[in-house]
Write a structure and sequence with these properties.
single chain, four-stranded mixed sheet, 13 strands
């Protein structure tokens, strides 16, 4: 029996308020578990985010030309829904403080900026849930050396910041980071739509084919804004097909539950492109020491 871990990235205020409640109804109905990675600070999605000023956006719904408002604070507006996910038995974790700025800046940002962003998210998570976060999943699979170090320093049990094949300890510039990575192993639905799939249903067929052909457990990343809103029927079809094939739908923490963490292989991480996405992303690279082999 294959296991498919569902990694749900929640990027926006709308995704939290609209997409998450739908997923909280759908997943238990199909007997599926999952991990929700929440954005916890300002929602600058689709808006203008300036490095030199607070994130603000134009409120077109107000029908007043030139009206500029502060970006909505997701952790303030949607804390109750986040707690509903936790109370329903789902694993909850950190995605980002300001997702847009993180994706735009982390590759070139200095260490203090990265530390502030991750610490803001860590503190907000604890304020919402009353306990520290145990996992981190970087927005857009974008990280840096210092950000990887902070996954260890902030005490996360694991992180899911990269793309790859199976869990491992990351090594960057020769430095081993003692926070295991549980990488996304399958392409996302939106990536497949951007690289040739004619429809969401065709993308689902491709995901099913890959998950069956490639051995081992898998991690599938979805977005509350897409699979929880726009592509609801396609996602429900995907889950139903996985279940029909005898696969178990689990949270990311379950991927590591039966493993000896200390014995995980060590792999270099690299920055490279991913089909369907612009710019470099964090990828699992080659084994760090000679003699370690792919699982």
């Amino acid at each position: 029996m294959k296991r498919i871990a569902l990694k749900i990235d929640v990027d926006t205020c709308r995704g939290t308020l609209v997409g998450v409640p739908f997923l909280l109804e759908l997943l238990p109905r199909l007997g599926a578990s999952a991990t929700f990675f929440f954005s916890l600070g300002p929602d600058c999605s689709g808006r203008e985010a300036r490095q030199s000023s607070p994130c603000r956006y134009y409120d077109f719904s107000a029908r007043l030309d030139g009206l500029i408002l502060p970006a909505p604070d997701i952790g303030t507006r949607a804390a109750d829904i986040m707690r509903q996910a936790r109370d329903a038995g789902f694993e909850v974790a950190i995605h980002a403080w300001n997702r847009v700025l993180w994706e735009d800046k982390v590759l070139s940002a200095d260490n203090p900026w990265i530390e502030v962003e991750m610490t803001h998210a860590w503190r907000r998570f604890e304020a919402i849930f009353g306990q520290p976060a145990t996992a981190h999943g970087a927005a857009g699979w974008r990280m840096s050396r210092h950000a990887l170090r902070l996954t260890q320093r902030l005490g996360f049990g694991y992180a899911s910041d990269c793309r790859g094949k199976y869990p491992f300890f990351p090594v960057i510039d020769g430095e081993i980071v003692r926070c295991p990575q549980v990488p996304t192993t399958l392409p996302t639905l939106d990536e497949l739509l951007l690289t040739g799939a004619a429809s969401a249903e065709q993308a689902v067929e491709r995901i099913l084919e890959l998950s069956a052909r490639i051995r081992g457990d898998h991690v599938f990343t979805l977005r509350a804004e897409l699979e929880g809103i726009r592509f609801r029927s396609a996602f429900e079809l995907l889950l139903a097909e996985w279940q029909q094939r005898g696969h178990q739908l689990i949270a990311l923490r379950d991927v590591l539950a039966a493993r000896n963490i200390a014995q995980l292989p060590r792999h270099a991480v690299v920055f490279a492109g991913v089909p369907g996405r612009t710019g470099p992303r964090l990828l699992q690279g080659k084994s760090f020491l000679e003699g370690e082999r792919d699982q």
